[in-house]
Amino acid sequence: MTTPPEPPVPPGRPTPARPGRKLGPVADNVGSAHRAWLDPMRTAYLASGLTLNELSGRVRFAKSKISELLRGVGLYPRWEIVLLLAIELGMPNWPLYRLWSQAALEAHKSSDWINGCTDRTTVTATPATPPLDHGAFRELVESDYALYAQAFLDDDQCVTAVSDTFDRLWLTWNQALAHHDTRRYAWNVLRTTVMARTPHRDGRPELGNAAFDTVALQNLTDPADYANQLTETLELFTAISRLPDRQLDVMVLRRLCGFTHESVSALLGASLATVRSDERHATRFLDSVIPPPRTEKDTP
């Protein structure tokens, strides 16, 4: 895959003024699973040019309730109203339903509640197949995305995070294609989804679980050698977690996943020069904070 140089971000078109009150921000207490479908729905609404009054008239639902739904305020919304809004906003309902139902479980809704407010025929009434170019892109990068996610998450969480990533991309595929680099847009969605599920310490993601899967440890049989290597590996991973986001991603892909500079460039949608520069800066930082390995001369 050829990686183009990083182009400048094109100026956005001015958004026409809408009559009525501006849509407020998402509530602070809205979780990441809820935002996975709420943010794309807000984006679709803002791009539609509709006012809340017009949307209210089309779906025959109170304007105040639509505003609450689009801000994540109040009780978790039932599927019927989410689906009505999705139809009016031209959103594919199959990935939306998957994300909605997953967020419902995380909002402590029971399976009976989810099934009770869901008419499965309306979920599957429209094609459950994503656009061809979305499917081709998924086939191209899914296994690489999974390797990145495995550095932070256990197997079940990894599968869910990658699946959610492609559902979110399906919901916002037009925006992804309109972005100056679709690969970078998609990577940002993956990163946001993975980091939302990753344990954090002092505001930085933890890489500790990935240490036990490293090749260096898998090839050791002596308990003492294993313990020493594990200590060094954990020190390295702790230091990597302190890197700025882009440098962290480069080092995870290079050091843990074993990708070439060219492959990292293609995945991140960043120029080859940028990837190499990020790796150099990250390596200098790691060398400055990780003590050199002990030798036999150092042993008392």
Q: Which architecture of the largest domain does the CATH hierarchy give at level 2?
A: Orthogonal Bundle
Any low-confidence stretches, pLDDT <50, length ≥5?
A: 1-15, 214-222
Relative strand content: under 5%
Q: Count up the domains.
A: 3
**CA-to-CA gap between the ends?**
52 Å
What is the 3D form?
Answer: elongated
What is the tally of helical segments? 17
Compute the CA-based radius of gyration.
23 Å
Which range best describes the helical content: under 10%, 10-25%, 25-40%, 40-55%, 55-70% or over 70%?
A: 55-70%
What is the name of the CATH topology of the largest domain?
434 Repressor (Amino-terminal Domain)
Q: Mind summarizing the main beta sheet?
A: 2 strands, antiparallel
CATH class category of the largest domain:
Mainly Alpha
Order of helices and strands: HHHHHHHHHHHEEHHHHHH
Secondary structure class reads mainly alpha
Strand order of the largest sheet: 1-2
Say how many strands there are: 2
Average pLDDT taken over every residue: 83
